[in-house]
Every structure is written in structure tokens, then in C-alpha cells.
Amino acid sequence: MTVTLADVAARAQVSPATVSRVLNGNYPVAASTRERVLKAVDELDYVLNGPASALAAATSDLVGILVNDIADPFFGIMASAIQAEIGGPGGRAGGERLAVVCNTGGSPERELTYLTLLQRQRAAAVVLTGGAIEDAAHQAAMDAKVRKLADAGTRVVLCGRPPAPDTGAIALTFDNRGGGQELTEHLIGLGHRRLGYIAGPEERTTTRHRLEGHRAALAAHGIEEDPRWTVHGRYDRRSGYEATLELLRRDPSLTAVVAANDSVALGACAALRDSGLRIPEDVSVAGFDDLPFSIDAVPSLTTVRLPLAEAGARAGRIAMGREEAPPGGIASVRGELMVRGSSGVPRS
Amino acid sequence: MTVTLADVAARAQVSPATVSRVLNGNYPVAASTRERVLKAVDELDYVLNGPASALAAATSDLVGILVNDIADPFFGIMASAIQAEIGGPGGRAGGERLAVVCNTGGSPERELTYLTLLQRQRAAAVVLTGGAIEDAAHQAAMDAKVRKLADAGTRVVLCGRPPAPDTGAIALTFDNRGGGQELTEHLIGLGHRRLGYIAGPEERTTTRHRLEGHRAALAAHGIEEDPRWTVHGRYDRRSGYEATLELLRRDPSLTAVVAANDSVALGACAALRDSGLRIPEDVSVAGFDDLPFSIDAVPSLTTVRLPLAEAGARAGRIAMGREEAPPGGIASVRGELMVRGSSGVPRS
DNA sequence: CCGTATATAGAAAGCGCTTGCTGTAACGCT
DNA sequence: AGCGTTACAGCAAGCGCTTTCTATATACGG
């Protein structure tokens, strides 16, 4: 049998109500009584029953963080930052909160399932990270779920994900379009006119926005795009490797390859090297995100830095009600172009 | 007001008990009744109240995964694999389980706090990943906590962490010592006699075991170790960079650098390159773990592959009671030496 | 010195669910 | 036909906590 509140109360010679109040610290209790209770708690090694507490109080100290791929540092960094902000005391009585990271693996079903699970646990807040899946039915289902969560008092924050209008969710969106455009403009400025683009999976907002930025830059400079120059793949290195070989096969005259993210760019570099091409002398490469390893690549990667940790921290604070939501519930987070060794003037 | 079991019962014209049984599927219910209930659930958009359910049933569907650093793919990969095994149906009624990843940041206090939080939530299982902190007091506190959890019916699995005897926890330990030894022996076999070692943080089992393996290899070949050849640091790239410069300063005649893990090794490579040294012609470099990016480094990294995903998956299955625990509750997981471009014969 | 405000503690009513036990038909057997 | 079984369904007692309301004790103002 585990120790209950009543046991502690008996030992401290007070009522269960008093013990509860001491533990929650939300009601005046005489110092001497408090001490007696705390002593009993300690002696009995009492641990509050979370479910019972959540049931009675109709709130829980669970905070959910949904990520597409926990093995990807892009999400790991955000999750880490969010969790760091959540760990501390917040809302109800200096109580610790349990930040739970849920890995959807990019699957629509799991995303929805996790949201239901969190709703079931009456989570205090939920942070959804990364791009959304662009499927009308799924979007609608997600929005409905989010709205329901928000209605039930769960604070919902989107971090690095487009806003979901009329759902009550607060959005910290990454300016993927702007970053993509800036990146490609840098390459164009260097003199590149034949640029390959390795996009992420289709039906993802992040993929689409980055690609749109790329195309906007091309259009702005009057460069007509060849459909052969775009290949879709996954957000991992392997995919970048294969896509680059494909790109090279389709048009060996490309002088630059823009990747959907840094991992993909690394794969692209490997493929280029394996094809006997030098970076950036023969082909320039650019990534996106500026993950920690990007500066370590040889040559170091030109990319767009996304303030993942900062955005995550802010999302965490907003989720905890420790920071005000941005006006209109939407804020755009800009990326910063990082020009490094992997981009240079095109070969003549 | 949210929808409750009673509402569903009323709508389906049955008793709450019946609804509960339909939902849990652990008691015979006539097909026609079940359908009626399910229909009502659907129509009312009913979501079970997790805390209430956990309270009444004295169990919850939460599974905790503790990691030292969620932004590090080493943990991300394990967590991902564990979670994949847990997501599915298990134990009680095809019910989904909520796998929660808790980021301790390597802090002893947070580790303990999270364990308490999970205990409070009456977690169904807990998986502790990665090396443990070697502090007697902390160890004792952890062991006591783990024992308490196990006593309360929570299954505890250690993945990549040394066994905790008499705690009821099941351990899947990585053979860090053996891997470290094999790695250094490879280097010695190549002809190296002056090897630098960049160790991880002190007071960590992983750090100690890998270092012990390294020293065992040296000893086995009659190489006397110079204390200047070992530097401690963190498990990240930055630390590897700095430690390598320090190593070079202390003894420029080193012909090989063994790193605590792959990230550190990457930092070492960068430092060597920045010092005008070629890899492996001037200095060989070796890592540990074989994370995905290691093969992409230039030159690709010689390292010890740890089957992180496999071990994680197994830990997950054991935690769910879907796979039998190894005999004695302890299993050692071996690493595999991956010889690649970063190691070669020493310069003469 | 009394009436009222103030501080502190307890009693008790749930929170929404699970489950042991108790019906009550319908069924099968002799 | 009579009776033990079997298959469902409902009743009701909690699970361990929070919180409203109430009770008591002390303090204060006049």
C-alpha cells in the first residue's frame, strides 16, 4: 500500500485538507503546522498521487511538446529550449511541470493521436513544433482538435509552424519564405544562374515556403526556372545525396545546389565530392537552419540560421503564461543568412 | 462543461459501467450494445478523462523516457526507437500509451525530479538512457527511487546505462569499455604509439568506461601513458575543438586523437585542420557511437558503432512487457568497430 | 467587555472513472 | 420441467485528492 494524504495527515495530527493546503501553498497555514506536515511528508516519503490531484483540481501539470522527428537536432534543439522554460515553477503553486515530448514521426495519424492523448490527460499546455502537413482533411481535423483543446483551457502554441486561424492557438512562425529567398538571392548575387533545388517532402508547409522563397528570388532576377532543377526528398542526409546525383544527371551544368535543410545539404556535399566536384569551386551548396554541425562541414555551410533555441524558449514561456502572446497571436521569426565557405562564384 | 462517461451512458441508454467496459474492452459486452455506445461516443465527441481513469484503475498509460540531452542525436535516436515501440497497443486494452521524453540536461537534480514526477503520475514504465552520474549520494538516491518505482509496479529499464543491482531495474548496458579498447587497439595496430584522448565529463560512467577501455588497450601493448595525453571536456564538438588544441599544445608529437564520441571527434578534426594538420596523414582521429553524420565527415570517421536504435527498440519492448527480460535482468550490448578514412598509419 | 473582523483548521461533498458483486434473462442439460 | 450455466448489464463503493463551506480561536475597535 502506498502512502496517502490521509496517512500524512494522521501522522501530523491534522486533517487531510490541511496537508493538501501545505503542499499546494495556496492557503494560509500556520508556520508551526506547516512544519509538522512537512516533517511527516518527509518521514513517510510521501509522493502526491498525480492523477487524483489532477482529477480533483481539474487541471494537470503535464505540458505536451509535439515534434516531427526527435532524432533530428532541428527538433531536439527546440524541444530542449521549450522544456527548459517549462521545467521551472509556473501557474499553480511552484509545482514542477512534466514536459513531455511526443514524436509524431511526421505521421498525420500519430499527430492527431497524441493530441487526443494530451487532451485526455487534460494537459496544461501543448506546443506544436515544425511544419504542418498540407492535407485539407488533416488540417481541418487538427484545427478542430486544437480548438477543442483551447476551449478546455489548454494553452496551445505553435512554434515554427504556420498560424491556425480561429483556433485560439498562438503562433511563432518561421519566415521560411523570406529566408529561402534571401539565400537564393545571395547565390544569384554571386553570379549563379543555374541552380538546383532539393526540396523536402511534399505536402509540408516548410517545404513549400522555402521553395516559394527560392522561386521568388529567381523570378525577381528574371531567371526562368527549369522544372528539372527541383527534386523532392526527405529531410535527411541520405535523401540529399541521392537527390544531388539525380540533379547532376538531369543537368550537369548546374553551378549551385540549394538544399531544404542542412542535413540534406551535407548529403549533397558528399554526392558532389563523390562525383569529383569541388565545393564551392565547381558547385556551390547552401543549406537551411544552421544546425550546430553545419559550421563543421568542410567547407563550412552557407545557410540560413533559424533561432531555434530562442523561438523554443519563447514558445515555452508563452505556453506557461509567463510571457505575453504577440499581438494578434501571431509572430514571425526571421532567419539570418550565414555566408560561409560552401558558396562562391560559379565556375566560368 | 465537458462530456463525461455518464453523458455517453445516458445517450446510449446503458449504465456508465457498460460504457467503461466497451472503452476498455476487458469485459464481454454484446455487439449491439457496443455499437450503440461507440456511436454515442462518436456523436458526443467524448474523450476519456485520463486522470480519473488512472485514479480509479490505479495505473496510467504514461511511459517516461529520461535522456541527458535531447538535442544530441545519440539520445534522440534512442528515444525515437523506444517511443516507436511504446506507441502501439500494449498491456491494458489496445489503449495508446503516452511516451514522454524528459530532458535532464545531465543534471542530477532534474534526473531525480523527473523520476518523482513520473512516480507521481504512476507511470506504467520508465526507461533511463545514457550514462549515469558517478556520485555516491546521487547514485544511492537514484537507486532508492528506482526501487520504489519498481515496487509500485512501474517497470524500469536502463538503456545504455550500467545495471543498478537490487533495484528491480532491467539493464541493457553498452559495452563502452570493450568498444574503447577495440578502437584503441585498431590505432595501435596501425602503428600509433603516442595517442591523445579526449574524455567526456568526469563522474560519468560512460566517460570512465570508454577511457578504461582505451587504457586497457595501451597497457596490453606495453604503452606507457603520459598523463598529458588525456583531457576532459563535454560531449560536444566545441569541447573537442578546444581539447585538441590543448592536446597539441601539450605534445605536438601525438599521431592520433581518440575522442569520447563523434561530436567531439568532429571538433577535433576541425582543430587539427585549423592547425594545418592533415587527417589521417598527420594525425588519425577516432570517435565513438557512429552517429549518422559521422560517415559524412571528411574524411569519414573511424568510430565504434553502437546499435542505438536496436537497443532502444528492445528497451521499449521490455518496458512494455512485450519482450522477455534478459537472464539476470542484465544484457550487454556490444559495439562494432567501423574503420574509415580518419585513421591511418602514423607519420614517420 | 462585547460585537465583529481575521486567521486557521476541519468536515464533507464531490471530481469521473473502474470493478466487485449482484441481478436477470436465455441457454443447455438430464 | 427443473436447475445449473453462461452471457450481459447495472449498482454502488470507492480511488486520493481539492475546495467550499463551516467552526473555532484570537485579535481588534470602541
TrEMBL record, chains A, B:
Keyword Secreted: no
InterPro entries membership: HTH_LacI (IPR000843), LacI/GalR-like_sensor (IPR046335), Lambda_DNA-bd_dom_sf (IPR010982), Peripla_BP_I (IPR028082)
Coiled-coil features, chain-numbered ranges: none
Signal peptide as annotated in the record: none
One matching Pfam family: LacI
Keyword Transmembrane listed: no
Domain of life: Bacteria
Domain HTH lacI-type span(s) in chain numbering: 3-57
Gene3D superfamilies, per the entry: 3.40.50.2300, lambda repressor-like DNA-binding domains (1.10.260.40)
Record key words, sorted: DNA-binding, Transcription, Transcription regulation
Protein name: LacI family transcriptional regulator
Organism: Streptomyces lomondensis
